[in-house]
Amino acid sequence: MQQIQIQPEGDHAVVVSFGKENNSVVRAGVRMLARALAEQPLKGMVEYIPAFTSVTVIYDPVLVYKEAEGQALGSGTLLPYEIVVGKLDALVQTLQEQQVPPESVVCIPVCYGGEFGPDLEGVAALSGLSVEEVISIHHGVPYQVHMLGFAPGFPYLGGMDRRIAAPRKATPRLFVPAGSVGIAGEQTGVYPISTPGGWQLIGRTPAALFLPDRQPPALLKAGDMLRFYPITRREYETWEGTSP
Amino acid sequence: MSIHVHRPGLLTTIQDSGRYGFQQYGVVVSGPMDTFAHRAGNLLVGNPPGYAALEMTLLGPVLEFQDAALIAICGGDFRAHINGSPLPLWRPVYVPAGSTLTVDAPKRGCRGVLAISGGLDVPLVMNSRSTYLRAGLGGLKGRALRAGDVLPVGARDEAIEPLLTAILKGMDREAQFGTVSWRISETLLPKYEEHPVLRLLEGPELHWLEEESQSELFSGTFTLQPQSDRMGCRLAGKPLRLGISRELASVPVTFGTVQLPPDGHPIVLMADRQTTGGYPRAGQVITADLPLLAQGKPGCRVRFQRVTLQEAQELLLQAELRLRQLEQSIVLQFRR
């Protein structure tokens, strides 16, 4: 982990980058720092956001100042930014001796095709594969959850087979129902809430990826592995519960 | 204690200090656009700084108070009346039961905060009462106010009773409302201006811009577009061009991040910003100056002035010191 960089992002955030490339070593660094921050939040930290290759720490400069020993507000020997960087530096040093947290595997059911996956046949036609082959390729591999963003609970997934890649729809749909599983370019993903969207829809999950009154509100977190498994329309309709 | 909504205004939502702690799950923060006005409003009515208040945009609501209340209107220069009598801003105001408050368009500014002693008592969603419109979360059923709504108000703090008694004692028999003789000094307010100069930090991808565009960002004039909303302030000027065209993997963004989409017109991300973004980050408006941009009306002209991180954080700590002064002097008034 020689490539770790700590840089300011504006006056109330700091980005810890573990490298430029999104590989397993970089991802392990992201997961370890996220776990460390969850277990021992820095004084004055508001929250942290793991991303593809970095963790962003949002802090309250005033609180950092107040919490720093011996610093009266405005007395100004060290800037809040410098205090945060100092603490993150020390924390990052300790990561090297730690074990990479195990990946949780989350499995979610998908009912492929039909009205739930109106673009499945189009994706198959584009790929030159049969509908069954597309389905089996799609749920055949585990996906890494790189980060959540764009919409509450929306996972950025890595690892989709290029054979089933498909461009976004030329005209986005005005309404994509929550739970829709789609493909856009070489990515796959699930819409946690109903929104407009341009992805090729191949199926739908009855699992809730985002529930405001659940703690935590999202089914997935950055660093998890996600597996899809196929279910029938009948199983979809009788599927119960919010977590698989 | 409740408040009846007769006219909702253009866009009136309930906001507390924001929904923090869930950005790692893609949940937007929300909260007030003008954080200074929000905090000052709460201070003036004896609330803790993060209490839920109404945020009004360009045209305020008409509200009927079932019970007496202590309120304060801060932020833009909104024209407000109680039963026809003009109401002062930036002051605690005692509103008798049965009064009707009308908040019309501001002379200056865009957003106002209407704080009520006790705060608005809507359910907490993920630790916050803030409304996030796009996902329909929080506030009043996740949406903006509508005519016919009833707003629940929490119990007010006993610490404000001496102030209330003093106001009532000094209140004229015919007066429509009661207030105090003091108000927040101009010197403690942000430098609200029609065409603000915003101090800007260099963004991580500033060097992706052509050199000419880098200097244009810090010397040119940008006009606030009507499509601007709580998510972002869209600016247009001489288009800024990228010299390096590279794909940026989505990265976290914060309040004040200046994104540069391919059309070359910067967007400053505001209270309802998404948690991550894929456009190059050309700059970052300093936290202390975000209230100035929050008050920008469509058509207002904005310029950027380059500052260092040290200056930005010193300015923020100074702003905090002014707020502490304000807090102390208000608390002293309450004790009288």
TrEMBL record, chain A:
**What keywords sit in the KW lines?**
ATP-binding, Hydrolase, Nucleotide-binding
Q: Which residues form a coiled coil?
A: none
Residue ranges annotated for the Carboxyltransferase domain, each copy included: 4-220
A Pfam family of this chain? CT_C_D
Q: Which SUPFAM superfamilies match?
A: Cyclophilin-like (SSF50891), PH0987 N-terminal domain-like (SSF160467)
Check the record and name the InterPro entries matching this protein.
CT_C_D (IPR003833), Cyclophilin-like_dom_sf (IPR029000), PxpB (IPR010016)
One GO term in the molecular function aspect is: ATP binding
Q: Which residues form the signal peptide?
A: none
**What's this protein's name?**
Carboxyltransferase domain-containing protein
Organism, as annotated: Paenibacillus algicola
Q: What is the lineage of its organism?
A: Bacteria, Bacillati, Bacillota, Bacilli, Bacillales
UniProtKB/TrEMBL annotation, chain B:
The domain of life is Bacteria
Q: Where is the Carboxyltransferase domain?
A: 24-322
The molecular function terms in GO held by this entry are:
ATP binding; hydrolase activity
Entry annotated with the keyword Hydrolase: yes
* UniProt entry keywords in alphabetical sequence: ATP-binding, Hydrolase, Nucleotide-binding
- Asked whether the keyword Ubl conjugation is assigned, the reply is no
Q: Which InterPro entries match?
A: CT_A_B, Cyclophilin-like_dom_sf, PxpC
What is the name listed in the Swiss-Prot or TrEMBL entry for this protein? Allophanate hydrolase subunit 2
Q: Which organism is it from?
A: Paenibacillus algicola
